[in-house]
Amino acid sequence: MSLGQRVSSDHQLARLLQIGVVLEEVVESRAAHHLDSLPADQREAIDEEVRELLAEATEESADHRERLEALIDGLDAETVSYEEINALVDARYGPPEDTDGVLYDQLCNEETAYKFYDDLIDAIEASDGEFAVDREHLLETLSSIRQEEKEGVEDVTDIMERRA
Amino acid sequence: MNTADQYLKAVYLAQRIEDGPASTGTLADMLEVSPASVNEMVGKLEERGLVEHEKYKGASLTDEGLERAHHALQTYCIIERFLANVLEVEQFRDEARALESVIDDTVADRLDTIIDRREECPDCFDAETDCCEFLELEASGHAD
Q1: What is the CATH number of domain A10-163?
Q2: Residue B22, class by beta-carbon neighbours within 10 Å (0-12 exposed, 13-18 middle, 19+ buried)?
Q3: pTM for the whole structure
Q4: Does domain B3-66 have CATH number 1.10.287.110?
């Protein structure tokens, strides 16, 4: 058991980045599933604002995934394909009941991702270990992704508040 | 998972292994820390009403502590299952132990949306083998 947040090896860092990739893939896949899963009348009722939010979330997750994959590549590790995670999401997917459910799930996605990157950055900063990727570049990349997740939380919260 | 939850999980598992209070020595071995560190943390958990400590016997979870330990063990099960079945990591026990402090329960909840976990979790967790008794490793590793 390892007490205290710390990342001390390339292997451990690669594993955490792989988890980050999977989280992004889950976000991307669930956002796509949400639109498809709603009954026709509910789907039509989804306004442009929510539609755009989901499209942006998908696009942003794909971008984050690529940036994480570049880091994983630098650690000489492999990643998990989107198709594989999409199939797992598909197998266990329970559609939200309505648009509010879609927004709530999206909020969970963004908050979870933010928390993940925040903890990961703390753990890297708490360690003085050397990694095969440049430490400054690693922290810059993760901090910039974390910032985008934070903005994502704010975007969903704004829409939810307007609709309340 | 924070340090307090890691301790509560260890107390829960040690109680199951020892069929009684968790001794300081067992907890120190499980957590790979000194007995002095265990005593200090157990004291803090006792102040928070999460464990009861009996001198010369050891620590036992209170009802509130038990609830938190259950939740922490579920989070740990999710990490192990995710590593074993999604990333196909052969050494999933060692890696779960190394990663659990960095994986928050909200993150584990999201990972839980893509794994299969039984309803009785975490009761099916085998404290001796340090994994779910129903966990089967996928055939080949690909994400190392």
Answers
A1: 1.20.1260.10
A2: buried
A3: 0.87
A4: no
